[in-house]
Amino acid sequence: MAGGKNWISRWPVFRQLMGENGRGEAARSARTDALRPRTEKADSVAKSICPYCAVGCGQLVYVKDGRVSQIEGDPDSPISRGRLCPKGSASKQLVTHPGRQTQVLYRRPHGTEWERLDLETAMDMIADRVVRTRRETWQQEEEGKVVRRTMGIAGLGGATLDNEENYLMKKLYTAMGAIQVENQARI
């Protein structure tokens, strides 16, 4: 039983309960001492802004061997003071997740399989469809009033777009005559 008492006295919880304040050496263990910050071996760190919404929380992006190794809140940010919401905390996955799509995938109408397209082909297909839809659904007048609009094109922005991207998208949709423009970043 002497070994049992020794084990209990080495247990961090026991030391915290019996110590004066439960912090410092009482809370330490060999495992605690072996832990290292994920940012410790980074080659560089860049200040950035979280891309998810219009709040603009500051982020520190840690880079190791030319790849993002960790993203954390920037304590110097007057907006977020080092804190990130769950979406911002998971933003590293935007560039590092193995399931992230890096090629254009297209499924033809009534198709059952995805096929890869080069970016230029996909962009041409989108442009052709936008021009055709605008031409086919353009309304110059409605009930005798000049409206100059299309109801065939709508836009839905996402929370991964920043303020500048959303601003440019709104300008583009407005220039095309679309009036149904919304954003889901409020959720």
TrEMBL record:
InterPro entries, alphabetized: Mopterin_OxRdtase_4Fe-4S_dom
Subcellular compartments: Cell envelope
Residue ranges of the region described as Disordered: 21-40
Compositional bias per record (Basic and acidic residues), positions renumbered to this chain: 22-40
Cofactor: [4Fe-4S] cluster
EC number: 1.17.1.9
Keyword Iron: yes
GO terms for MF: formate dehydrogenase (NAD+) activity
Keywords: 4Fe-4S, Iron, Iron-sulfur, Metal-binding, Oxidoreductase
Highest rank taxon of the organism: Bacteria
Domain 4Fe-4S Mo/W bis-MGD-type: 43-99
EC category: oxidoreductase
Assigned protein family: Belongs to the prokaryotic molybdopterin-containing oxidoreductase family.
UniProt-listed PANTHER family: FORMATE DEHYDROGENASE-O MAJOR SUBUNIT (PTHR43598:SF1), TUNGSTEN-CONTAINING FORMYLMETHANOFURAN DEHYDROGENASE 2 SUBUNIT B (PTHR43598)
Designated name of the protein: Formate dehydrogenase major subunit
High-level lineage: Bacteria, Bacillati, Actinomycetota, Actinomycetes, Streptosporangiales
